UniProtKB/TrEMBL annotation:
Record-linked SMART domains: VWA
Name of the protein in question: VWFA domain-containing protein
Record field: compositional bias (Pro residues): 9-21
Spans through the membrane: none
Record-annotated VWFA domain positions: 63-231
Record-linked InterPro entries: CLCR, VWF_A, vWFA_dom_sf
Organism: Urochloa decumbens
Region (Disordered), start-end ranges: 1-21
């Protein structure tokens, strides 16, 4: 089944000009390194700091898929808290955003396509949430795969921020292990409901995604805080699909190691470069890359024990990183 029936974004009447998409490359890159290095072969460290710029009201629209556990183990207080959370989400989205709802028990069902969140559609979305009833087993993997497919099949995808919110008590007893579902370049935010929630699956799913997080929802106060923080991030994305490439400068230095936390890296042996994929960058968020460089023995004659070292390599790395950082926009589904 294809989910390419996502709604277009239609400006409300008398809304004035449509928001301008965020300018590509809204990111700053600063490099920090030693200004002096020995004449002999030596190892130097370079720190690259990338910072997301200011968020503006002219943000990119969000395509959000809520994947909701409606199995029997969600009976009672759990599902009522989940409904409260979803109503909070619906009311925080605006007319440049779209929301799809996927539910799962023994299997998954998409109960609405990606719909533009407007004054007209909000009551309909809230009605769908109120009508949720628990029953059956728990197939988290089918719910997750269906939610990802909603995003992959979109007709309108260019320049839009994406995210999946997965809400469950984590007590999976049907389907393949959800931790093994390939997620790709989509952040999945998981929320554990109930005092008896199982964090194992939900934590693994979030960690497997790029930029996803796992939160525990045990009371109403934590519920509001958890979803406020998640939405605040999604609604202030300033660069999408951020990648940074660090390359060597001729024979001046060799990259020994690039450290960037758990973000995926790819190496190009011929070019002597390493590319780090960061996913989305939020307003004021800082990402750091530490590069270990092996510098060759200096060819400059003279008796000085120290020479100015590494500046050109850092400039090159910064230029390459800055150009790479200006890549943005999700690939089409």
């Amino acid at each position: 089944m294809s989910f390419n029936d996502d709604e277009p974004i239609i400006p409300p009447p008398n809304s004035g000009p449509r928001p301008t998409p965020i300018v590509p490359g809204r990111v700053q890159l600063v490099s920090k390194n030693n200004n002096m290095a020995p004449l002999e072969e030596n190892t130097q460290k370079v720190l690259l700091e990338l910072t997301g710029g200011d968020s503006t009201s002219d943000r990119s629209g969000l395509d959000l898929v809520a994947v909701l556990d409606v199995s029997g183990s969600m009976q009672g207080e759990k599902i009522e808290k989940m409904k409260t959370a979803m109503k909070f989400v619906v009311k925080k989205l605006s007319s440049i955003d779209r929301l799809s709802i996927v539910t799962f028990l023994d299997t998954a069902s998409r109960i609405c396509p990606l719909r533009q969140v407007t004054e007209a559609s909000q009551p309909q979305l809230l009605g769908l949430i109120d009508a949720l009833r628990p029953g059956g087993n728990t197939n988290i993997s089918d719910g997750l795969k269906t939610g990802l497919k909603v995003l992959a099949d979109r007709k309108l995808s260019s320049g839009r921020v994406v995210g999946v919110m997965l809400m469950s008590d984590g007590q999976q007893n049907r389907g393949e292990p959800a931790a093994g579902v390939p997620i790709g370049n989509v952040p999945v935010y998981t929320f554990g409901f109930g005092a008896d929630y199982d964090p194992t699956v939900l934590n693994a799913v979030a960690r497997n995604s790029m930029g996803g997080t796992f939160s525990v929802v045990n009371d109403v106060d934590k519920l509001s805080m958890a979803f406020s923080q998640c939405l605040a991030g999604l609604l202030t994305v300033v660069v999408q699909d951020l990648t940074v490439t660090v390359a060597r400068v001729d024979d001046e230095s060799t990259i020994q190691k690039v450290a960037a936390g758990n973000y995926p890296q790819t190496q190009d042996a011929d070019a002597g470069s390493v590319t780090v994929a960061f996913g989305d960058l939020y307003s004021k968020e800082v990402r750091k890359v530490i590069v270990d460089l092996l510098r060759a023995r200096s060819r400059h004659p003279g008796g000085d024990l120290l020479v100015q070292g590494g500046r050109e390599a850092v400039r090159r790395a910064a230029r390459d990183g800055d150009r790479a950082a200006q890549r943005h926009g999700l690939p089409g589904g």
